[in-house]
Amino acid sequence: MQKTLVLFLFCLNALVVTYFFASLSYLGDKRKTNLGATVSPQEFLHQGDLSSDLGAENDQVIFRGGMTREGRYEISSERIKPKLSWSSEKINAGIHSASKATPVADSTGVYVGTDLGYFYRFSLDGEIIWSFKTDSFTQGIHGSAALDKDSVYFGNYKGYFYKLGKATGEIRWIALLTEGIGSSPTFWNEDILISAEYSTHRQGLVFSLDRRTGKKIWNSQYFGEQVHSSPSIDRKNRIVGVGDNKGVFHGIDLLSGKTKWTWVGYEPIKSTAVVVGERFCFTNWEGKLICLDTNTGQMDLEIKIGSKSQSSPAYDGSQFLYFTTTAGDLFKVNLTDKQIESTVPIKSSKSRKNYGMPSPIILQVEQKNYFVVTPCFDRFICFYDSKLKLHTQVDVSGIVSGSLGVYRDHLYGLINNGGVFKIQLY
Amino acid sequence: MTLSSWKEFFHSNIKNLNEDSSLRLLQLPLILIHFLSAIFFLKQDFLGILTKIERRICWPFFENCLAYTRFSSFQSQVLFSSYLFLALVCIFLFFKKSKHSLSLLVFLEIFKLLIQSIDYRFMGNYHFMPHVFTLVYLLAHNKSVWLRIWLASFYWSAASLKTNPEWLAGNSLSFRTPFGFTEPLPYFALLVLLIEINVPFLLLSTKSKFRHSALFIFLIFHLVSFYWVGFFYPMVMVCLLSVFLIIKNQEPININILWKDKIAFIFWIFFIFNQMRNISDFREFSLNGYQRLYSLNMYDASSECMGFFLAKSGNSWEQIPFVNHLAVRVRCDNVIFWQQARNLCREKNGNTTWSAYLYSRLGSDTSQTRIESEVDVCKKL
Fold it and tell me: By three-state DSSP, how is residue B15 classified?
């Protein structure tokens, strides 16, 4: 009897150990991360009404004007007389130090998320049409939304990524990706790309999701640090570029999500890179403007700008970049000559505010005829000509740390501790 | 059995429990478990759970518990203090060799069950196992046999429920990692499984050296488990394991002996059957709180989930999270989810339409495997 029991136990244990090694092998690929078993992309997806019309590329509205993030918009005429058209009730509380969301607008209205975790659709006249209160931690929503024909896409600081119907705010799908999304998405064909991060383990990565269903197509490898900047796309070379909080810039294959190259810096990259030809150009906390070859990641431009910056550069389409720094200066950089062309202060000498956040935009009539527009002097929106001569200021009564959205000769912004406003140009 | 035969059974049982020295001694660990339970309840925010009715989580099949279980702060403190006081009195009576210690032990069992009935969060196999053990101690004919076989069965059922990739991957242990290393976790998980399979056989041996070796192994095992599960669970098991030291008559166990006590045998088979049900679909049973109750929560997987409630009122939407920052064993529990849905339906105004969604998976899964979904949920609850 004892021998039988011993034999039985021996066989049972052998089976269990065999099963153990088989299980490890089965699970090995499924939970392959560089962190161990504690963190993996969440991959939770709630699907509602999936019958949306994605529309064409010209139906899309993306932060900084498109996947290359140039921050450049066409306007009708150079004879601008900007003035405040309306401003809404207060919807932001000034929570968290990251740049606030930039409103995006099209013919259906103005769309923006707040640091209180609400997402709004306003009419073009400033009336709230619907609101959606997300499940969010205290930081709420800081990324800017993206629009296609009948839906809006945005993330929040609890790691949720939403697709809502523009008409009524009804849910198309909600994906729980990570523990925080502070960036702004971009489209690639029928996919949508977003960078996301973890707070409990300092990690970040980029996701590509099917825009129609919300299902994941790929996620990049983990960066080893959080990521606040938004992905930019070099369409020609099919490369996605994004910087992280450790100062590393990642070049990711657009179709597979595999990392093609990394460029290692030493201070956080919080700005969103602009794609200039076949280069990613961005500012960082080291106080530099850097440009990298999109194919190889080789640095081909490095300009010291005197103080740190997390402003996303605007590109005029020929050879100039514009951005701001924490010291409170607006820079114009000549990419051909690889030097600083000029600077102007956008901060009064008495102000203690951090100005390294606002990202200027370019309102362009013709290639060499444009205005550089940026939040400035604590409460204004400043319009400069291409030589950085101040044309006019509009008082919006509050600090704007994000950027400005543009739709049909109107600008839209969000005050850090206030509401949405609209500036008409004529 | 007639009423008189039942009376005779109870009288002889009580006499046996009071007069047999080793059976009497077994009261002590059972009373100690109540003392430990009181401390554990306090650690679980007992007073907060009783007083904050808006967060009350009722048990399944007792969804209207709020009508019967509202406590003020004073009442909660009296309830807790009474339970703790009675446990201490019981220990005192035991050491005074009073026969009333047994009656008080029975009263404590009922008291604890009533406390647990107040809120679902007072569940857990570390409560269920002592309840079963005490029931067997009080009512079984051949107590020395049944107490030992039940304890061995607890370990074997725990082992059977761990024979799956989820446990063997180490995910259920990954919320705490020794020195930050996750690589050893699967091997720890395998070691736990091998201990729970093999050591109970040593426990049931008639040879004292094997029994004592097994007790030593389990002592170390539960000591190490403090790191993952805290103080309560290991101490409960150590108390129950004392049966192998206290009971003098460690006779060999076989099916004929078990069958002599038919009611106890059927009860035991029923328990085994419910463990086997879990093995057939461990994913479903791991993620479904209603199903896990049948198996007395012998296994709780490391689960992850996305849960929320959607309220629509006019042109406003609100996404309310499923409050799941609870212990690992219940953080994705659908019992709690639906109770929260009921609470929301009760609190919110009539113009709001509610929908409820819960997506869950095991830690080793990469996509959601269980979905609870209800549009306009208040109409159905």
Answer: helix
